[in-house]
Each structure stands twice: as structure tokens, then as C-alpha cells.
């Protein structure tokens, strides 16, 4: 009996070791899928605007550009809930702020191709920044970058590397290490020997563009203290915040959009802007 228990125990330990080794070798893939779960959502096929195809590093990227015949363009990074098709209303609402809008589907989102690695995502974002400069003849000082949720980290990276007019971050997080630790209670990435990534809390220190950070106290997905860390670390020449007290991660841009938009417009138009706490 004791021998059998020892054999079972040894077998279980060997299984755990093998499973751990497999996790280490597939850790990066697992991390990307869990961070960018686009394929977990059912695609909704809505043809609402002509999509333009771009070839880059042998992969196709799909995007939309809404022209408002304005000098300034908002480069918008949509969130994780799916591809461009389901963000029609959101993108058009940003366009209704009376700016041009560019928004693209990230690698492996919708009809875009490629793996959602940090390197690929950063490179694809820079390609579209270059598109605005070279094809649309935008001036660097006329580009506004607007990122939502984890894509606020991508927006932060682009603002860190490029000269822009203004930066808007909605529900930003500090880094992938801290997000993993917050969600799991321990740092799985370190256990799998994965490097930290999407480190917004450090990059924000070098961004001088005027910055607006929007967050909500009841956000259970990205905790409020991460917003505070990003805001405190910002060395922007002008920085502001909007705090929505009673809203959760996914509903603030819809439920409170009519209330938030006037403040965003004030921020974009160089008008007097006061920090706001919205309570409903």
C-alpha cells in the first residue's frame, strides 16, 4: 500500500514538473491569448464603412479613417471587446467630437493578421502613425492619441516614442506584471520567466504632451490605484483627470459618454479645464 502511494506521489510530482515545463515554453503564447482574448468573442458582421487593407511585415491590417475635414486627428485604440465591427457607435461618437478619427484592428483582431505580441502591436501602431504623417499629411502637433483599457498602454507607448498634441487615457493600467498579480494574487509571469511588458507607469514619466486620464472608482477589472499611479507618475506639462464614481469598466464610455464628452472637448480645444469627479 505504501509503495503504491509513493508511486502515485512520484507520478503526480513528475506530472507537475512536466506541466510546469510546458507552461514555461508556452507561457508567452498563453499570456498573449489571456491578455488579448479577441477570439473569445463572437464576431458581429456589420459593414458600416469601407475597410482599407494595409500590407505590413507580410501581415494584413485593417483600419478605418473617418475624415471630418479637420486639421487634427484622434488616433483611437479601441478596447478588447472585439474587432472594429462592434465599435461602430463608439468610433462615430469620437468622430462627432469634430475631429478626424483613425482606428485599426490589432494583429489577430477581426480581419487583421499576425500575433498580438508586444513587438507586433507597437510596430503596427507606429505604421499608422507614419500613415498619418506621410499619407494624410498630418503635423505631429495635430495628432491626438486616445487609448482605452489595456490599449491605453499601447497609446502610452506611442506617445512616449512620438511627438503628439495630446494624450487621453481611459482606465489605464501600470504594467502587465502588476495586472497579472492583481488578477491572480501572485505573479505568474515571473514564475514562467516572462519579462514585464506594457510598462506604462515608467513611460508616462517621459511624456510631455498634455494628458487627460479618465477612470472610475468601481472598476473591478483595472483597479483604481493603477489610475492613481499613472496620474502621479505623469510629468506632462499639463495633466488632468475625470473620475467617475459609479461606473464599471465597460459601461463608462456608453453610460456616461454624454457627460464626459463636453469635458473631453474642453480638454482638446485648449479651453479652461477643471478636474472632475462625476457621481451618479
List keywords for this structure.
280 residues; alpha/beta; Rossmann fold; 2 domains; 9-stranded mixed sheet; 10 helices; 9 strands
Helix residue percentage: 40-55%
Distance between the termini: 65 Å
Rg over C-alpha atoms, rounded to the nearest angstrom: 21 Å
Low-confidence stretches: none
Number of helices: 10
Q: Major sheet, described briefly?
A: 9 strands, mixed
Mean of all residue-level pLDDT scores: 78
Q: What's the number of extended β-strand segments?
A: 9
What is the fourth-level CATH superfamily of the largest domain?
Alpha/Beta hydrolase fold, catalytic domain
Q: What general outline do the C-alpha atoms trace?
A: globular
User: What is the fold-level CATH name, i.e. the topology of the largest domain?
Assistant: Rossmann fold
Structural class: alpha/beta
The CATH C-level name of the largest domain is Alpha Beta
Q: What is the string of helix and strand elements?
A: HEEEHEHEHEHHHEHEHHE
Strand content: 15-25%
CATH architectural category of the largest domain: 3-Layer(aba) Sandwich
Number of domains: 2
Strand order, largest beta sheet: 1-2-4-3-5-6-7-8-9
Can you tell me about this structure?
It is a single chain. By secondary structure, the protein is α/β, with parallel strands linked by helices. The protein has two domains: 1-34; 50-278, Alpha/Beta hydrolase fold, catalytic domain (Rossmann fold). 40% of the residues lie in helices and 18% in strands. The protein is built from ten helices and nine strands. It has helices at 2-35, 88-95, 118-134, 151-161, 176-184, 188-191, 200-203, 224-233, 252-255, 257-268, and strands spanning 52-56, 59-66, 73-77, 100-104, 143-148, 166-170, 210-216, 239-244, 276-278. Strands 1-2-4-3-5-6-7-8-9 form a nine-stranded mixed sheet, with helices on both faces. β7, α8 (224-233) and β8 (239-244) form a beta-alpha-beta unit. α3 crosses α4. The longest helix has 34 residues, at 2-35. The N and C termini lie far apart (65 Å). The model has no long low-confidence stretch (mean pLDDT 78).
Amino acid at each position: 500500500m505504501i509503495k503504491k502511494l509513493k508511486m502515485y506521489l512520484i507520478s503526480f510530482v513528475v506530472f507537475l514538473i512536466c506541466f510546469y515545463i510546458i507552461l514555461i515554453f508556452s507561457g508567452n503564447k498563453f499570456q498573449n491569448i489571456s491578455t488579448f482574448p479577441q477570439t473569445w468573442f463572437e464576431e458581429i458582421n456589420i459593414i458600416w464603412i469601407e475597410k482599407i487593407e494595409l500590407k505590413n511585415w507580410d501581415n494584413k491590417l485593417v483600419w478605418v479613417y473617418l475624415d471630418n475635414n479637420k486639421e487634427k486627428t484622434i488616433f483611437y485604440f479601441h478596447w478588447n471587446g472585439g474587432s472594429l465591427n462592434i465599435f461602430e457607435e463608439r468610433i462615430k461618437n469620437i468622430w462627432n467630437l469634430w475631429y478626424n478619427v483613425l482606428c485599426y484592428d490589432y494583429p489577430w483582431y477581426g480581419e487583421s493578421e499576425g500575433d498580438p505580441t508586444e513587438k507586433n502591436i507597437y510596430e503596427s501602431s507606429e505604421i499608422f502613425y507614419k500613415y498619418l504623417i506621410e499619407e494624410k499629411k498630418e503635423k505631429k502637433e495635430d495628432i491626438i492619441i486616445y487609448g482605452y483599457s489595456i490599449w491605453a498602454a499601447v497609446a502610452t507607448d506611442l506617445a512616449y516614442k512620438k511627438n503628439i498634441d495630446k494624450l487621453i487615457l481611459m482606465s489605464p493600467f501600470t504594467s502587465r506584471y502588476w495586472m497579472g498579480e492583481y488578477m491572480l494574487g501572485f505573479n505568474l509571469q515571473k514564475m514562467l520567466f516572462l519579462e514585464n511588458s506594457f510598462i506604462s507607469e515608467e513611460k508616462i514619466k517621459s511624456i510631455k504632451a498634455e494628458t487627460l486620464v479618465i477612470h472610475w472608482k468601481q472598476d473591478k477589472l483595472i483597479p483604481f490605484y493603477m489610475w492613481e499611479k499613472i496620474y502621479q507618475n505623469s510629468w506632462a506639462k499639463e495633466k488632468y483627470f475625470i473620475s467617475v464614481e459609479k461606473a464599471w469598466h465597460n459601461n463608462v464610455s456608453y453610460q456616461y459618454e454624454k457627460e464626459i464628452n463636453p469635458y473631453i472637448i474642453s480638454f482638446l480645444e485648449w479651453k479652461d479645464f477643471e478636474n472632475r469627479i462625476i457621481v451618479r
